[in-house]
Every structure is written in C-alpha cells, then in structure tokens.
Amino acid sequence: FGSRQARRSPRGPLPVLGRGRSRGMPGPRPAGGRERGQAGQAEAHAAKLNAELARGLFCFLDANGDGLVEEHEWEIGCKESRSFFRPGQSQPKVVSEIFDALDSKAVGSLVLEDVKDEVASLCQAMGIPTGQGHEALHILQERRAKAAKQREAVRGADSLASMAAAAAPDAQSAPQSALDPARGDNKTAAAAAAAARVCSDRRAQVLRRFLGVLQPEADEAESATEEPLAIRAKRAARAVVAGGAPPPPPAPPARPAGDRR
C-alpha cells in the first residue's frame, strides 16, 4: 500500500530538495578551516613582533652602531639591562654561555642574523621577564636616551667653563664652578686653571709686542698705568690708521743672553 508517487517511479521516492548535496548544491564547509586561518595569521603576526623585538634588542646591544655586537658590548649591555630588571643578579657566567651559544661560528661577535630567531635567549641574557620584551625594550631605550642627554649637558657645561677660563682677563682667576669640590673633578679643574693662565700670559705677550710696534716711543708713565693692554693696543691702532702712516716694521726678537749665533 505505498504512495501513488512511489508506485509510479521504479526508482523509489524523489529526493527532498534543500538537504545534503543534491542537484549540485554546495555542502557545509569542513569544520576548522576558519580557525586554522586565524591561527596562521596569529603565528605570522607573532613572528613579525619577535623579529622587531630581536632587531631592537640587537640595536640596543650594538653600542657602536656598526652592525656587530662584540663580546664586551654584549656583557655591558646585558649588565645594564639586568641592573634594572634583575638588580643583584648579574650572572656573568649565564650571559657568557648564551653569547657562546649564539656565536655558532666562534668569531667573537654577533650579527643580526645570529639573533633574529633567538628572542628567548636574548631576553634571558638581558634579564627581561617573559612576555614583556617590547615593554622592556621601550624602557631601556628611554633610559639610554636620558643618560645620553645628561652626558651631553655635562659635556656642554664643561666646554663653556673651559672657554670662560681661557677668555678670563685675570691670569690668576679660575671659574669657581670648575673648582667646586662637589663635582669631584679636581684634576680637570686644575688643568683648566693652568690652561687659563697660559692663555692669558700668551695674550698679554702678544698685546705688548703689538703695542711696542705701534708706539715704540711710549713713555713709562703710560706703560705703568692700570689700563688694560687690549684697550691701549686698540687706541694705538686707531691712531695709526687715522694718521694714514704705515706702521713701522716689527723689531727683530731679542736674543737670549749667551746666544752667539
């Protein structure tokens, strides 16, 4: 007692549309395809971040910026990093062992190709906590930039102090800032004071010779005045220029006593 359609069709009942893959309809997508694509993208992004982190850490260790990290640069950079992230845990043996492991060619230096896939080893040698590589690199870069600015400021202050000492009119005077004992740089201060005295003496000798050429007949009373040599020499030069007469030739230097040449 089958249905009328079943009795008419020798092949059985017709399939119901909308189910399965009948009549060329696409079936359901295999499970896990989208998840695998997302996982691949995440892995590629993580690899890119690791490459950037390795490049940044390598540049931090490469203090000279020549593309090579020598062993002493490695030790200094790792010590600087560990002193901040792991105070009191320098572990020079571990740092040296990691350097030897990365230096597979035993050339005594590292290039970026040696460490680009070794972010974990770099972080271990530098004492950077796990998973905090990018934050640690940002902190290290800021600390180094701040230290460089401080050194530049101190260098500029020392240069200005040296220039002021060299231009001081008094031969016996020295800048008080250079003699400040709080700076702990007494040798540098003494050298700056000595250089100032030598420069002032030479300047006085040159001015006296110049004034003697312009005014060889200057009386002793004017020479004994306390007027600065620079002002006297400038006034004498203006007098010669205003008179229109060429200055007399310079006198030959006096020979020291006992020189028979």
TrEMBL record:
Feature: compositional bias, Basic residues: 1-10
Pro residues: bias regions: 245-255
Region (Disordered): 1-44, 165-185, 240-261
Composition skew (Low complexity), residue ranges: 165-179
TM stretches of this protein: none
Coiled coil: none
Protein name as catalogued: Uncharacterized protein
InterPro entries assigned: EF_Hand_1_Ca_BS
